[in-house]
Every structure is written in C-alpha cells, then in structure tokens.
Design goal:
This protein is α/β, with parallel strands linked by helices. Helix content is 33%, strand content 18%. Bound molecules: nicotinamide-adenine-dinucleotide. Nicotinamide-adenine-dinucleotide binds at residues 36-42, 61-64, 67, 90, 93, 108-111, 113, 131-132, 160, 202-203, 359.
C-alpha cells in the first residue's frame, strides 16, 4: 500500500546504522504527527510523511480550511484514518499542540509562528520540528534551546539542503579526509524571489514584510547549514564572531514599479533589506566562512557551496572538485567523477524511494531522517543548537549592518559543549 500505518518499519525498508552522540529521547515506534501550516512546503512534507514508515498524521491545522481538507484527503487516500482538523483561526495551533494523539508537532507556517508553535508543542510534551528558520531573534533562539533542554524534547530545524546529493557527497569526501583540514567556506542563498515575494496568495502574503522591516541576512541556513556540518560547527568548532555588510536596496522597488499598476499599494513600499548582504564568520578554531544573501535581483540560483581544505577544494554551481594528487594540476574535476568513491550511503539507501519528492528528493531524505531518528530514539542530525546557531546569523548580521559592519559575537548555544560534542557521522 502507498502509506504504511504499521508501527514498525516495513520489512523491505532499508535501515541505516545506529546513532552517534548528543540528546536522545525514548524510541517512538509510530510517530503521530500534527502538521501545522498546509501551504506550499507543508503539503510537500505531508506528501512525504504519508509514504514514510513509522509515522502517521493524526492532526492537520491551517487558517485556510480548504488546505487542511485537501491534505486530509491525501492522508486518507494513503490508507490512514482521517486526521483531526484545526482550522478555527490564527491561534488554533494551540489546540493542535495540546491534542493527546500527537508525538511530534511539525510546522511549515510563516516565520513568525515557528517559535510560538514549537514552544507550545514542547510545553505539551511533544517533540517539535519546524521549517527554516528556527527563530527570528536572539531571545527566541535562547527560548528554543532552553525549552528543549528543560522539557527534554527535540526541537529540530528542518534544513533540507543538508540532504542535497552533492552536499552529502562533499560531507562524505571530507569525513574520508580527501580535502584535508577545511579552513574556509563560502555559502549563500542567492535566489531571485521577486515574484515569490510579490505573490498575493502564497509566501508574498507574509514574506515581503521581513524585507520591509530588516536589513540582515534573512535566510542564512540553506547555504550555511551544509558547510557548518562539514566544518563541525557545534561539534568540535563553533562560530565566534562575524562582520556584515549590505548593498543598497533597489530590486523589490523596481519590480513593484514594473509589475503593479499606478496607485497599487505595493508601489509605495520601501525596504530596509539591502539587496546583497555578505557576512564573514570567524570560527573558534580560526577558520572562516562567508555567507551571502541575494534574493531581490535578477540572477540564476546558487548556494555557492565552496569548501577549501588543505588538500583540495569543492565548489558548487556547477559542482566541481580539485583533489591534490588526484585531479590534474590546476584543473577542476566534475564532482560526479568521484561519485563511486564518495556517494553518501543515505543517498544510496533512499534515492529510489525519494524519486519525485520536493527539491530533487532532499525534502524526503530530511523527513525520513526525522522520523527514523524518533522511531529509534536516536540523536537528530540537526539539533536545537544547530538550528539556533545557523538562524541567529540573521540577528548578528542585522546588528553588524547597523553599526558600520563592526564585529558582533555569535552566541554559543552549546555553552562550551561544542568542544566535546562529536562531529556528525556519515549515517547510512
Ligand atoms: N526548505 C525549503 O526549501 C523551503 C521552501 C519554501 C518555504 N520554506 C519554509 O516553509 C515555511 C512555509 O513556507 P511556504 O512556502 O509553505 O508558505 P505558504 O504561505 O505557502 O504556507 C504557509 C501556510 O501556513 C498557513 N498559516 C498561516 N498562519 C497560520 C497559523 N497561524 N496557523 C496555522 N496555519 C497558518 C497558511 O494558510 C499557509 O497554508 C516558511 O518557514 C518557509 O521559510 C522552506
């Protein structure tokens, strides 16, 4: 059958090896999920969850009832009982979080709701998972960390780009020592979102406001998450401080003038957000990472994805690698030239099952890892400390931008435990 209501993994479902280190909770053989926010990303995750063994969606919540209904139909079609729906307005997620038949509250709502929903979930004894970012302010990041610690619940920020095929190949390459010690990385989220930010039905309804309110790197985690994992941030190294600088702002205003008729309110909006923001992070071990944000101007997509080591370098867009002593001197190889040696075991295990899932399959890998970690009582690949340190870059870049790019300390949410936490393993 398409969905699996069983409380155990399917016999033919390929299992990976056991956990590494860090916080674990008792295993939950069948994870009962409350999904909150059934829009674009929520629907994509729900499509995955009805196919992943070891979980069942029991609750759906959205302020637009038809979205919850539409997704409930999918759950039923996959062979499960109809979930309970919570669609009675902006705060009905509180009732969804209190629902007795829920182990995990997973949200893909607009950014302002991530923290209140996850906090409510944890206070109700549920594990919490949220679409990116984990939180918007420094205080919120600490609230998430402290609540997860006090309630002993997972609080996971779902960074799908950590599960991109090339990101996983690179992680495997680095763990096997092919690039030596990694000294420097360059990451970013460079995505022309002008149309998305002006869409009057989906993300445009809420996302453009953040560009009106803040001059910062508004979306650091897609690029930063994978390089932070590769460089053992919070697991052997940690962010120390950053400096940040933004360009002037033109893209969204120009777009509004081009696309909207005279007199439309969008045409009179002004934006604090500089169109291109770059920051440079120094780590405790002395390594460096640049993180870019460029979402308001015409350009092809890129996350940059560069890692420079003592024995070689990888770079994305297009994917290429140079390994000293292996590649021809001064010449790039294509990353996939080395796929036989470095394909990530998770990709080998699940590539077939992930076919057709969102963002080239990476959304499926992250959902599988979330559910199977809960099923087995394992540590999360990305825990609350990772979510907080990757997300707090927005706050730190905002401070630095506002103060002539002066250095801003990046909080250590692990409170020194980064020194003893072990690097993320290569999980099969
Ligand atoms: N990881 C990725 O690749 C990726 C891609 C797109 C979006 N996202 C993230 O996913 C999240 C949602 O983005 P989206 O594109 O799905 O947006 P969306 O606007 O399509 O969906 C948001 C949904 O939340 C619902 N909602 C709003 N307020 C609510 C409330 N108070 N209670 C319950 N439901 C509420 C809306 O009705 C809508 O259905 C954002 O955090 C965004 O950053 C991640």
């Amino acid at each position: 059958m398409a969905g699996c209501a069983a409380t155990q993994h399917n016999a033919d479902w390929p299992l990976g090896p056991m956990p590494t280190n860090n916080f674990t909770a008792p295993p939950i053989p069948e994870v009962r999920v409350a999904y909150i926010g059934c829009g674009g990303m929520g629907s994509a995750h729900i499509n995955n969850l009805v196919r992943i063994p070891g979980c069942r969606i029991t609750v759906l919540c959205d302020i637009v009832p038809e979205r919850a209904e539409r997704n409930a139909d999918k759950v039923v079609k996959a062979g499960f009982p109809r979930p309970k729906l919570y669609t009675a307005g902006e705060m009905d997620w509180k009732n969804a979080c209190a629902s007795a038949d829920v182990d995990l509250v997973y949200t893909a709502t607009p950014w302002r709701w991530h923290v209140p929903i996850c906090l409510e979930a944890m206070e109700n004894g549920k594990h919490a998972a949220t679409e990116i970012p984990l939180a918007l302010t420094l205080d919120e990041c600490w609230q998430m960390v402290e609540t997860a610690e006090r309630t002993q619940r997972h609080c996971v920020m779902m960074e799908n780009c950590c599960y991109g095929r090339s990101e996983m190949i690179v992680l495997n390459m680095i763990r096997k020592g092919a690039l030596g010690e990694i000294l420097h990385a360059e990451a970013g989220y460079m995505h022309d979102l002008r149309a998305v930010k002006h869409d009057q039905n989906g993300e445009g309804v809420w996302r453009r406001q953040h560009a009106i309110d803040r001059d910062a790197n508004l979306y650091p985690t897609h690029g930063l998450g994978p390089v932070a994992q590769a460089m053992n941030i919070n697991r052997g190294d940690a962010f120390d401080y950053l400096v940040s600088m933004s360009s002037t702002s033109r893209g969204l205003e120009d777009y509004a003038i081009e696309q909207f008729p005279e007199g439309h309110p969008v045409r009179s909006e002004t934006y604090r957000l500089g169109d291109v923001n770059f920051c440079m992070i120094k780590t405790k071990l002395g390594h460096t990472i640049t993180v870019g944000h460029d979402c308001n101007l015409p350009r092809p997509y890129s996350r940059i994805s560069l890692l420079q080591g003592t024995k070689g370098i990888v770079q994305g867009y297009p994917n290429r690698v140079y390994i000293e002593g292996v590649s021809k001197p001064h010449q790039w190889d294509e990353l996939l030239d080395h796929v036989e040696e470095y394909e990530h075991p998770l990709y080998k295990r699940l590539a077939e099952a992930a076919k057709g899932a969102g963002h080239g399959g990476m959304d499926f890998f992250e959902d599988v890892r979330l559910i199977e970690s809960l099923n087995r009582g394992e540590a999360m690949d990305m825990d609350v400390y990772d979510g907080a340190s990757w997300s707090v870059i927005t706050h730190c870049t905002e401070l630095s931008n506002a103060d002539r790019s002066r250095p801003v300390d990046i909080p250590d949410f692990t409170r020194g435990r980064w020194k003893s936490r072990k690097p993320l393993a290569i999980l099969g």
